[in-house]
Amino acid sequence: MENLVRRNIKELTPYMPGKPIEETRRELGLKEVIKLASNENPLGASPKACQAIKKAASSVNRYPDSSSFYLKRKIADSLLLSPDTLVLGNGSDELIEVILKTFTEEDDNIVTSQASFLEYEIISEICARKLKKAPLKDFRYDLKAIRGLIDEKTKVVFVANPNNPTGTYVNRNEIEEFLSGLPEGVILVLDEAYDTFIDVEDFPRGLDYIFKKNVIVLKTFSKAYGLAGLRVGYAVLRPEAARYMEKARQPFNVNLLAQQAAFAALDDRKFLNKTREAVLKGKEYLYTQLKKLNIDFVPSVANFILVDIKKDCLEFFKEMLKYGVIVRDMSQYGLNNFIRVTIGTARENKRFIEVLKKIL
Ligand SMILES: *Cc1c(COP(=O)(O)O)cnc(C)c1O
After folding, report:
1. For residue 305, what is the domain's CATH number?
2. Do the strands 86-89 and 233-236 form a parallel or antiparallel pair, or are they unpaired?
3. Is residue 191 lining ligand 1, measured as CB closer than 6 Å?
């Protein structure tokens, strides 16, 4: 059957997830392994969400609510928007695909930046849509360069704000200037997976633009809420368009446990605050240590740091792995001398620095 496979799938470089803890234990025979590779919440999941999962476990013989009625209403209330501005997804990853399915035709193209979230490229490839990438400028999205790549066939522009894997952001002025020059027929997707960790004043709130321009904001429960394993994200956009994304998604894309857990997690301000505090404190610690070691890094507004190790990152990744520390090598992002490290617990951050010292 191989000869029947579509060319785009044959030629695809699939997404390479961060190496799982269990796999590392098994392969290297290590007892203690820490994972700082996928920007997950180091404190675990929201306790309220865990309780809700336990309570809902015996109901999984039923299909989930296809409309995610209660979760949607609760998210909408928290954003002071109406529920029909929301489209929920099996992680925001799924929504990237739903956006392309809903809005793009065969010969439309998509624009984003180099060294950004890999899913934009992979999903474009799977959907057989052409993707153009502007270079980064000082590790930041260069919106002028992106504007330069937009042509009459461009339908969607993806901007991860803040960007993964660099941790940098585009500010309010930059976004507003970009939006004012954005052609009518182009949709800007602002992917705000790390919004909880922002600690700067000039960060633009994507939601401010959804009724002014063709803007879709993506959010997720995978990072700050600690629910990466459950897969819940959402898109916010004008209701007239949201209803077509609703048509293009799978009917049961947000599973029953995920709906209950996300619903409970939204109430867990305590957990969210604790997470934010731990990340900001951990970031200060890592900055201080890296500076002491004279190691260059890119200042980040997210829960991870791009570190310039000035040598082959795949080798470096393997070295760290031997000590039971999983980081992300940046070869897939074209940053061959960089690793990305997720800010962990105080203990994990300390261990990372210890191992770093051993290797360098
Ligand atoms: C982690 C991340 C996501 C979240 O993906 P989910 O599918 O919701 O887990 C989305 N965008 C970016 C840029 C990310 O880093």
Report:
1. 3.90.1150.10
2. antiparallel
3. yes
